[in-house]
Amino acid sequence: DTGVSQDPRHKITKRGQNVTFRCDPISEHNRLYWYRQTLGQGPEFLTYFQNEAQLEKSRLLSDRFSAERPKGSFSTLEIQRTEQGDSAMYLCASSFGLAGVADTQYFGPGTRLTVL
Amino acid sequence: DQQVKQNSPSLSVQEGRISILNCDYTNSMFDYFLWYKKYPAEGPTFLISISSIKDKNEDGRFTVFLNKSAKHLSLHIVPSQPGDSAVYFCAARPTGNQFYFGTGTSLTVIP
Fold this sequence. Notes:
The complex is a heterodimer.
Chain A: E1 5-7, E2 10-13, E3 19-24, E4 31-37, E5 44-50, E6 53-57, E7 65-68, E8 75-79, E9 88-95, E10 106-107, E11 111-115
Parallel strand pairs in A: 2-11
Antiparallel strand pairs in A: 1-3, 3-8, 4-5, 4-9, 5-6, 7-8, 9-10, 9-11
Chain B: E1 4-5, E2 10-14, E3 19-25, E4 30-38, E5 45-51, E6 56-59, E7 62-67, E8 72-77, E9 86-94, E10 100-101, E11 105-110
Parallel strand pairs in B: 2-11
Antiparallel strand pairs in B: 1-3, 3-8, 4-5, 4-9, 6-7, 7-8, 9-10, 9-11
């Protein structure tokens, strides 16, 4: 297993279009996270799945954003009606977590989104 | 509201010397802390972690120190190598799963 993978690595779109990103976590990991990172900032938490259940969502995640993890394996993040402010690096991370035990997140290479 | 702060955006160190990267946090509920290293065009790579029940954790050339009373942690790299040049992020988590990241410190190790 080569780690967390994300597709595409780069996406350029026009304002108002919809985009979808995919994340494939490390195979035995039950937790999956999405983050957004803009220039000069650290990653900002967007949402988190445990298996197929979406357990936490940041208030950063507007109603134009939706994430799924239908079978508890890969996940998709969709942004509808993109805006120029959505331009950022979208990072996916996965971990193996047990209740009450701290888990370490492993990141993918990210998808860089540019909205024109 | 930035709950995790890295006040030094950049740091330069001579090869072979010690690099010290600092991180401050405001939330006393944070109980788990991590350091990540990031190269350009790649995702962050996990380096080392520490839980709030400890004040030091060591892994090879990397040591993380936690001062809970000061809400401060630091990463020491000894000896520093040119390959250590990257952006370093600290991250913290309260009980739960949402991690908060600092804004990063860009380390340059000069050969």
